[in-house]
Amino acid sequence: MPTLTSAHDLITAVPFLLGFHPTNSIVLISVKEDSIGVAMRIDVPQVIDSDAIDLLAHHIIRDNADAALLVAYIGDDQEDGDSLLISIGAGLIRNGITIQESIVVQRGRYRSIICRDLECCPASGIPVPAIENSKIAAEHVVAGIPMPYSNISELIDSLAADPESLDLSWSDLVAQFYIAEDSEEVSELRRDGVETMDLLVDEFRMGRGISERTMVARMIGRISDVQVRDYALGVHSEDTYDLFFTMWRELLRLAPRGFVAPIACIVAAMAYENGDGALAQRALDRAFEDDAKYPLAALLRRVFSAGWPPESFAQMRAELHPKVIAAIFE
User: Fold this and answer.
1) Residue 72: enclosing H or E segment and its boundaries?
2) Residue 36's domain is classified under what CATH number?
3) Within 10 A of 326 (CB to CB), how many other CB atoms are there?
4) Tens-digit pLDDT profile for residues 228-278
5) Which candidate, 79, 95, 101, places its Cα nearest to that of 29?
6) Domain assignment present for 225
7) Which residues have C-beta within 8 Å of that of residue 162, sequence separation ≥ 6?
8) 5 class by beta-carbon count within 10 Å (0-12 exposed, 13-18 middle, 19+ buried)
């Protein structure tokens, strides 16, 4: 997890943490041992009550964090950014959470409402920095992770089907790697799915992405198996989250009809864990469009609607992963 040492670092990092440049948003970031944890985004509310703030605090606490960073992205015609952050900050403090920084972003400028040093924090604010040449941008490019989308709509559109997914020859290639439950070689095919996953994520790690088309088809076909899918749900760590999420999102766009639901559920689960409920729900929409009765999609919809803390879902996934590994390899 990266360490943020200044308001400049924070403003630069937020789009990478969310995957898009936020607008009309309140962003909360947990802090653990001086490193950032989970990032959550909500739309700027008209009003926010104590129950809503307590729920936000609950998510921070469940991340085992004792501090938080707050950023409000306020529209040009709004004047309530300071009061919203003060209310949220007071509620978090009431729940035992220290506020390390609280920033309002508006009209292309940002300013801290905590800092009182007018030399580093002028009342008029500081221009929002371009992120393209930042250190965090360079790290993402080296890792083969794309730059953040311009807005949340573009991010959601990034889950839409690629025209190539409709190509019949592509569908036939993917179908060659489908794993039938009654196959005599089902164990070997499942292990092949895991090995293909390792190889493909290495392609993304080296910046080659989906260039190996047969490998991509192989992965999409193999992930249709429940055990390979469940392995994929638990294989990423905090350090590899961005890498795996980028890979699954690309594969979701390329998945032909009949092969969308498993990958869409993986994307939905990862988005939800990352605090992005809107993207998680859109991924589930794609799963249901592909298979209206897909069991995992129905389960995830219930989990999301019930407001399960993302940390609880992540913990459950982590506990199940060793059992999935045992089932595949033993």
Assistant:
1) strand 67-73
2) 3.40.140
3) 9
4) 999 999 999 888 888 999 999 999 999 999 999 999 999 999 988 877 777
5) 101
6) yes
7) 253, 254
8) exposed
